[in-house]
Amino acid sequence: MKFEFGRCLLNERLMESGKSAEWLAKDLLIKPERVYDFIEKTDCNMKCDTYWN
Questions:
Q1: Structural domain boundaries enclosing 17
Q2: How many domains does one find in the chain?
Q3: What average pLDDT values come out for the chain (53 residues) when binned by 10 residues?
């Protein structure tokens, strides 16, 4: 079984709304680096191959 993960949904929604990671961080009262880290970790074109026996 093969899973493909695309771009981070959060990043896509921010881009669609014209908002920035800084805006979100300010609204959530967190550091922008935390938002960027989350986007970076989830923004992968990772392919996982899982084989079931």
A1: 2-49
A2: 1
A3: 61 90 94 90 55 44
